[in-house]
Specification:
By secondary structure, this protein is mainly α. It has helices at about 5, 10-20, 30-35, 35-40, 45-55, 70-90, 90-105, 105-125, 140-155, 155-170, 175-185, 200-225, 225-245. The protein has one domain. The longest helix is centred in the C-terminal third of the chain and has 26 residues, at about 200-225.
């Protein structure tokens, strides 16, 4: 049994992951969030598979609701990804599943990438001078300059402006009846005056930030030696504890074969 499957509430997080890819208006955000281009360019199968998964939580009146034991989750997730593999190939299906587990389903990994998103922003003062590190940066000057260059290249204002533009366009999209039915089962989505798919768009922005942290580390693994990478993780643990959260699990070494 996998670590993800054993985590409490895994069925809710799989539902959340599939909600992310169930709204057509969000498709322009898919590649920025890290989904494979082959899927983003032809989204129909992933959209329909995701909708089927989400709507299975809320059966029609008179039909029994799924028990959603860990075994049920594994079966339904497997069926969804079998359809994805048939449409896009097994490599793309594995990539989509890894994306979902890394950034949404696995609660340890998704928190880890959220933490690194915050820490990288602080390290490069990417969000303004008020977000500077609150603890001394115990990394040598030369590797630190390389780290900051990678962070600033990833978190540059042009990327943020493009994301904001795409979100604004997505907010104006007309939703289909099945999308409205799906969103009616999501808490907070039917409030008066709120864009129906607002929470899905919010969630996508969080995924984009997690994915940016992952991409930054992907580059740093090749730029830094093992001692420099460890120094960065040590600083991250100290900064997280001092600034906002103690006990953060920031060890990303298992994410990269080349570590």
């Amino acid at each position: 049994m996998s670590v993800v499957r054993e985590q409490p509430g895994v069925e809710r997080r799989w539902r959340s992951a599939f909600e992310l890819v169930s709204i057509r208006a969000c498709v322009p955000l898919w590649q920025r969030a890290g989904l494979p281009s082959v899927v983003a360019q032809d989204p129909a199968t992933l959209l329909s598979s995701a909708r089927e998964f989400v709507l299975s939580f809320e059966r029609q009146p008179g039909t029994p609701r799924l028990a959603w034991t860990p075994s049920d989750v594994a079966v339904w997730v497997g069926k969804a990804f079998d359809r994805v593999a048939t449409a896009y190939g097994r490599a793309a299906a594995r990539e989509v599943r890894s994306w979902a587990e890394r950034f949404e389903v696995d609660q340890v990994r998704r928190q880890r990438w959220s933490d690194w998103s915050v820490l990288f922003g602080r390290l490069a003062s990417a969000y303004g001078p008020e977000q500077r590190p609150s603890t001394p940066v115990t990394i040598a000057a030369e590797p630190l300059s390389r780290i900051q260059l990678v962070i600033r290249r990833s978190m540059n204002p042009t990327h943020e402006a493009e994301l904001a533009r795409r979100r604004a366009e997505a907010e104006q999209a007309q939703l289909s009846p099945i999308e409205l039915q799906l969103l009616a089962t999501v808490p907070g989505e039917t409030r008066s005056g709120v864009v129906p798919h607002w929470s899905v768009l919010d969630a996508f922005e969080v995924i984009v930030s997690r994915r940016a942290a992952y991409e930054i580390w992907s580059e740093l693994v090749t730029l830094l030696n093992i001692d420099e990478r460890r120094a960065l993780m040590r600083w991250g643990a100290v900064e997280a504890a001092a600034a906002y959260r103690s006990g953060a699990d920031l060890d990303i070494s298992s994410e990269f074969v080349a570590w």
